[in-house]
Amino acid sequence: MDDDPEPDENSASVTRCISAYGSVTHAIVAAIADATGTDPSSVTPIYNAVDTDGLDTLLKDTDRAVAVDLQILFTVENCRVRIYGDGRVVVTPPDD
To answer: How far apart are CA 92 and CA 15, in angstroms?
Structure first.
């Protein structure tokens, strides 16, 4: 289990729901773009940081992902990306 606390509601973190974007990759890109104030087309390709097919596989069975309390953490463009089994993507931008 991860000892890092979840970002609090008062932080600059951005939360997106995978189901609203149709894929985990699109949700991650949208959240990074919103968190950094950039255009989604300028976000570094996610596949440079993580195996996107692997993410899709891990998140395919939502019931199981929730049951095992799935959490995936990685960094893209100095943003901390956290994906939860319940379909949330939380992106925390770097401290300036």
So the answer is: 9
Q: Indicate if the alpha-carbon torsion angle 32, 89, 29, 14 is positive or negative.
A: negative
Q: What secondary structure letter does DSSP report for 37?
A: T
- The answer to whether the pTM exceeds 0.90 is no
The backbone torsions φ and ψ at residue 58, rounded to the nearest 5 degrees and listed phi first, read -65, -35
Which tokens hold the place of 58?
Answer: 């891990």
**Integer angstrom CA distances of residue 10 from 7, 13, 29, 59, 61:** 8, 8, 22, 27, 31
Per-residue exposure over 62-82, b if at least 16 CB sit within 10 Å of its own CB, e if not: eeebeeeebbbeeebbebbbb
Condensed to tens digits (0 to 9), the pLDDT of residues 63-91 reads: 776 777 889 999 998 999 999 988 899 99
How do residues 36-63 score in pLDDT, each as one tens digit? Answer: 999 999 998 999 999 999 888 888 777 7
